Amino acid sequence: MRSSNPVFSRRGFSRDNGYAGFNTAPQAGGAAVGTQGSPYAQQGGNPYATNPYAQQGVQHGTPPQAPARTGAMTMDDVVMRSAMTLGTVVVGAVLAWALLPVSPTSYGLAIGAALIAFVLAMVQSFKRKASPALILAYAAFEGVFLGVLSEMFNAQWSGAPFQAVLGTMAVSGATLLVYKAGWIRVTARYARIGMTIAIAFILVMAVNLLLVVFGLAPDGGLRSMGPLGAIVGILAILLGAFFLTLDFKQIQDGIAYGAPREEAWLAAFGLTMTLVWIYIEMLRLVAIFSGDD
Q1: Where are the alpha helices (DSSP H) in the chain?
Q2: Number of other CB atoms surrounding residue 286 within 10 Å
Q3: Considering the entire predicted model, what is its pTM?
């Protein structure tokens, strides 16, 4: 899983596989940026070879704004691709909920769909270019998994999926508000600290899973449905919010640097993975606080 999901190394909007905002973005209050400052400079023969900031400079901490350019990614492109990807997830979830009753067979299908979605996510994460078909296929299988999972939770904790959706929207909206207000600055140091915590969290959860499988951690260990599980769930949701800030920064830098339009699919892919992470953790948290386990 990248960011919040299976792929920590999902490609950002830079040629060196790093986050454009961390490796190449102009610093606040800095001087004019040369052509080496843009991740799309030095690409001979393409419309992004000219740095949009070379003639205007960046001063007083004002974020760079890329001039309108045919073929460059825009916020509309990101919104449209994200709507398509998330819409595919929703359609897959609704169909799975409607067509697959709560049963061991459905659970098996859900696990299979989750594994396929994981593989597709990994493949896309290591591809040099975005593949819309691959991303939408990932979204479809992820939707099937979420549909069965949501139906299972709803059978035991009525209304949990709806509350989880509202919680995911609240976390996402609050994170976007805080990011846009400038209360969080996504810097290289911020990213390093956050990713270190995230990797540690994933490793601890992997060890916990092994302990549960071998019967050494009764009731799920750290992922129990009790107070300890609630604390871990809240931490996981906070990590999801952190990954959202990274996604927002990538999108902002991609638009500012004139990323190719097709990279809007990468933005949609990253946002979808992060929102799925938050939704699953929110679903567990709602179930825990329902207190009927």
Answers
A1: 20-23, 75-99, 104-125, 132-156, 160-180, 188-213, 227-256, 264-290
A2: 21
A3: 0.79
